[in-house]
Input
Amino acid sequence: MSGRKGVSAVTPPDGNSLKLSKIKSVAAGIPAATSSMAHGIKKMGLIKTVKTLTLVNQPEGFDCPGCAWPDPEHSTAFEFCENGAKAVADEAMKAKVNPAFFEKYTVQELSEKSDYWLNSQGRISHPMILKKGHDKYQEISWDDALETIANSINQSNDPNRSVFYTSGRTSNEAAFLYQLFARTLGTNNMPDCSNICHESSGRGLGEAIGIGKGTVTLDDFEHAEVIMVVGQNPGTNHPRMLTALRDAKRKGSKIIHINPLPETGLVRFKHPQDYMKLSFGSESLADMHLQVKIGGDAALMHGLMKIQLENESLDHEFIKNSTSGFEDLVAKITKTKWSQIENDSGLTKNQIEDAGKILSESNATIACWAMGLTQHRNGVAVIQEVTNLILMGGHIGRKGAGLCPVRGHSNVQGDRTVGIWERPSEKFLQRLDSACGITSPREHGLDVVQAIQKMREGAVDVFFCMGGNFISATPDTNATAQGLNNVKLTIQVSTKLNRSHLVTGETAIILPCLGRTEIDVQDTGNQFVTVENSMGIVHTSIGGLKPASNMLRSEPWIVAALADKTLDDGRDWMDLVSNYDNIRDLMSRALFGFEDYNSRVRSDSGFALPNPPRDSRTFATPDSKAHFISHELPDVDIPEGKYVMMTIRSHDQYNTTIYDLHDRYRGIHGNRRVVLMNADDMVKRGWKTRHLVDIVSHFEGTERRSDGWQVVAYDIPRGNIATYFPEANVLVPLTSTAEKSNTPTSKWIICSLLEPGQGIFEEE
Ligand SMILES: Nc1nc2c(c(=O)[nH]1)N[C@H]1C(S)=C(S)[C@@H](COP(=O)(O)OP(=O)(O)OC[C@H]3O[C@@H](n4cnc5c(=O)[nH]c(N)nc54)[C@H](O)[C@@H]3O)O[C@H]1N2
Ligand SMILES: Nc1nc2c(c(=O)[nH]1)N[C@H]1C(S)=C(S)[C@@H](COP(=O)(O)OP(=O)(O)OC[C@H]3O[C@@H](n4cnc5c(=O)[nH]c(N)nc54)[C@H](O)[C@@H]3O)O[C@H]1N2
Ligand SMILES: [Mo]
Output
């Protein structure tokens, strides 16, 4: 292992005085407006803030780099969202990380800074190289940087010793070129952030309904009678979804919130724009909060299905004609005992009956979910249980009804659609091959966890990251660092500084790229890119700001220039990227659903990709039916004296990017190293809020430790605790992953809480 001496892979503590206030009861409102303006002005200045915020999600503007929630027709004057505004300000900030900055600090010194500090230093302005044995980054020309990467890839005797990671902000055009490059080279090693995010949704839905995507559009929310929001915190992570929920609610829809925490966004909501109409009241959103225990959702779904069976609220015709597996499901559900349902979910039969009744009376139910379901050992299974509940009432391919995995990164869904996948289907590869004149490898590539394992074995020479922050986003930080240190060359295409620039292979390169907000000029003039939102709508994104530095290159250009240097495949890569219409023409031929791409995507609202369950209630499964897939309930018992921990996002972060040290809605300010804990559990240990503890995680006889966390009494079920990602990633075991999707179980980590310095064998 060749890690640079003293480089810290784990985020050092930041912030000091922890301030606490009450859990907020109203989301958004004036505090949201002032918070986003303040972030904007601090980072961009007033004039740029106003200009930038008026370009977000407009037909002639750029797609918000925040989340993948769709925009209503792309047309309101100003689709306001506090956290979208923060994401934009963060990208468009004025400060620069330039060669002089890198001259000032060694990599080891930078690694002692917090993630918050690293991100706030500004936009990376130049290509940089960290040479073998050196401790500082130096400037390098684009040509030399690309030449170095091309040589390393070619010196490696096996294309499978190169790995190409993607984070979900990459445009369709860049992602398509990137996968074409990897497959022409001869590898499917394309792990992406989906592997650690919604992979369980893709896998679960693919098996059940023949497409790994949701089946609703924004319009369906207006016609829904019931909306379930399961394992998701939209007030923070998808704030614009609250507008859809409010509008649905005004039309009479009921909202059921299923979450171990009473997340503020779902309690009351105040649309920031309403102030302009001099309307000051807030509106309540969730009609019911089911405070399920972490991991208790499968049991809850069994309970809800029992009620549907008892009430005969079934779509018999749909079940008979369009599905299979119903009898098996009924047998399983009937066998499940109420005592187990109550024990595992932490809810009473009465509570579940009340929710079940609301569902029984609905003609149109939507189920939404995010990481609270996917990042569990039974992530795939529990999503199939939600699907079973929706299917039995025929709530699919019907107005106002359907399944809605709410995606994270703004183009994570598009990246997968255009080929970023380590397990591509034969159908996809055949069309790609014939359109592009290549023979793609058929052997499956590595996902995120497998890539880390291969790096640890020394089986990876080149690790290329298209965006993201691999070291901080992945599990078991120290184990992953050992893997990265084993690689010969690591490359990061980035906008902002992060820990993945510091925890590297023998040699490391940073390639600075344009962000969504910036004007992209190629040989034939200004370009736009395209993205797909969470509901399968493909539309344009056009940057409007002057680039942060004239040394930045666009992601499509970077891929094309690298392919041009690496491959000898006869393709004119530079011509493809000289006008992105050329890339889209090739995509039209190579991808299903992208026919006439260039003309269709130019319409104001873009176009919808085919979605058989939604469009025609048909299912692209081997027997053309939707599948009820039933499962035994998982074991959710927590060993005596231990806790189960979920790692979640605060209101002031975007994944590993820390905007600030607060979590306003949850009433936590100034410090992120906190453990949210049930007050009765604290009394049992004799602890008060701010008590200092060390956390040890346990998995299959192994332990990981992280010291110095403050306990905070919180409204969370007994036996459950919550900490923030990425600080807590050091505790997530590398091989604790979901069955079938291999997604790390970031919401189910068995832990002990110890007195500072206490050994694990000294537990009482
Ligand atoms: N501002 C902002 N926006 C973002 C992001 C961001 O970091 N910041 N990240 C983006 C990305 S990539 C993603 S994937 C999404 C993530 O969006 P979310 O999934 O909303 O993000 P998390 O903070 O991981 O929240 C998980 C929620 O699930 C709940 N939960 C945890 N375990 C369980 C369980 O067992 N059962 C149930 N029912 N609930 C549970 C938690 O209490 C929490 O409310 O947001 C996207 N949007
Ligand atoms: N414990 C725990 N771990 C988790 C999760 C969790 O809930 N708990 N959530 C998981 C989830 S859902 C996800 S999606 C992953 C996220 O994993 P990643 O996508 O790998 O991480 P991000 O923090 O989103 O990446 C941030 C970096 O992306 C770069 N960047 C930003 N915009 C652009 C751009 O336009 N182009 C390029 N090239 N780079 C850009 C910046 O340099 C920034 O520092 O983390 C996962 N990890
Ligand atoms: Mo995500």
